[in-house]
Specification:
The structure is a single chain. The chain has 409 residues and is of the alpha/beta class. The chain has three domains: 164 residues, 3-Layer(aba) Sandwich (Rossmann fold), CATH 3.40.50; 82 residues, Rossmann fold (3-Layer(aba) Sandwich); 130 residues, Rossmann fold (3-Layer(aba) Sandwich). The chain contains 15 helices and 14 strands. The protein has a six-stranded mixed sheet with strand order 2-3-1-4-5-6, sandwiched between helices. Strands 8-7-9-10 form a four-stranded parallel sheet, with helices on both faces. Strands 12-11-13-14 form a four-stranded parallel sheet, sandwiched between helices. The longest helix has 14 residues. The radius of gyration is 24 Å and the shape is elongated. The N terminus is likely disordered.
């Protein structure tokens, strides 16, 4: 299965084999994007499809293998199906023929334990309508009402779209401002963007593009500079920006170039506040000072990319932490949304990237095991700012909106 790389809401389709999951996806998409067959078990691995549901908006539907798949391969398919629970914002559980058993009980239990909203759909209602006794059983077992639907005649189609709209978490659809609460009409924001070996050829990285767009959306002015141009620009123009945002890797240079009465932060910290668990990042970052010889640190990169010789996660952050702590620490880097190689409790600290390529829910789900286990978490930009002595300045623009924010300054 391809990893989560979209910020659109993810809707997972679940149920037993031959319950019409792929047919439902085709129905919602208005086109044949999933293979449909009368033979049970046609869908073997989770498949993600991005499109727009008419009357709703852009989403990613995740088509999964039957939860009742059997045999050695079937067990592996079910495992992959269950792993999709970490990336979805809404679950659609399909049932047919008045059948409800341990498979459905187990899925509902998992939905509830992971706080995933769900809709239970009685599919193929044109062939067999749900009985009153079955409706009662579903309600008692799941706490949810049974929604009657049929791909064949699209009965209750508009009602299903509306139910999806009101059930999916609001944060999955909102596009909150990255910087809108920090800048005003006409403000000037300087974006410091080094062009080095890790910069993508011919383009900017996504957080930089998102910042530019958000600044424009808020009727402010974005000025984009390489780090070595900042001093001359400020000196020649006399401009005093309302805010400066830098790539974390040149924090020290930016801190020296931007006057200290001008707020300064980084793209990574901007994203940490935008979609990360910012309060837990604030609590976890100072734990860097408590690392000991032999501790393990987990670095989570939520996308896969070409590894440069001076990669930030694999090389620079470990080097900066070593220089700061003087300790011998072991590092594990996990890219994408892969399974961790060790239990989360083996790590003394988790450092998460900005998460620009995944959804807010995917990022929070990625961090939940560490939070539940009491393992401190932080973010690439916040960790870099901390070990380079710029932490208080870097988080200052954002902590006023955080409970007990004064405790972090």
């Amino acid at each position: 299965m391809s990893k989560g790389k979209e910020s659109k809401p993810h809707i997972g389709i679940y149920g037993r084999r031959n319950h019409g999951k792929s047919s439902l996806i085709n129905c919602l998409a208005g086109q044949d994007i999933a293979i449909v067959s009368d033979h049970a078990g046609t869908t073997t691995d989770p498949v993600k499809k991005s499109f727009e549901i008419t009357g709703f908006g852009p989403v990613i539907l995740v088509d999964t293998a039957g939860i009742d798949d059997s045999g050695e391969l079937g067990t592996k398919r079910v495992e992959r199906t269950l792993r999709t629970l970490d990336i979805i914002d809404l679950a659609l559980l399909l049932v047919t023929d008045n059948i409800w058993g341990e498979y459905e009980d187990d899925l509902v239990s998992k939905f509830n334990s992971q706080d995933i909203p769900f809709i239970i759909i009685n599919n193929k209602s044109d062939l067999k309508a749900p009985s009153a006794a079955f409706r009662k059983k579903v309600s008692e077992k799941s706490g949810a009402d049974l929604f009657e639907f049929s791909v064949a005649d699209k009965r209750n189609y508009e009602e299903l779209i509306n139910l999806i709209r009101i059930t999916i978490p609001g944060h999955s659809l909102r596009t909150p401002a990255l910087l809108g609460d920090l800048i005003s009409y006409g403000d000037i924001v300087i974006l410091i963007t080094p062009i080095d070996v890790e910069a993508p050829a011919g383009r900017l990285i996504l957080p930089q593009v998102q910042a530019i767009r958000d600044i424009l959306d808020n009727d402010a002015v974005a000025i984009v500079l390489k780090e070595r141009e900042v001093d001359a620009f400020l000196r020649k123009t006399g401009i005093r920006p309302a805010l400066a945002i830098t790539d974390s890797q040149v924090f020290v240079k930016a801190d020296a170039s931007i006057p200290h009465d001008i707020p300064l932060t980084s793209f990574s910290i901007m994203l940490a506040r935008f979609k990360g668990d910012f309060e837990n990042y604030l609590k976890g970052t100072p734990k860097i000072s408590e690392l000991k010889d032999g501790d393990r640190v987990l670095l989570l990169e939520s996308c896969s990319h070409h590894v440069a010789c001076d990669d930030i996660g694999r090389t620079k952050i470990p080097r900066w932490i070593k220089n700061f702590t003087g300790k011998k620490i072991e590092y594990t880097v996990v890219a994408g949304l892969d399974i961790l190689p060790r239990p989360i409790t083996d790590y003394a600290l988790v450092i998460q990237c900005g998460g620009c390529m995944i959804t807010r829910r995917q990022l929070h789900n990625r961090l939940q095991p560490a939070i539940k286990a009491g393992i401190p978490i932080t973010n690439y930009g916040m960790a870099i700012a901390y070990v380079q002595g710029i932490y208080k300045r870097a988080i200052a623009p954002f902590v006023n909106g955080v409970s007990d924010g004064e405790n972090y300054l």
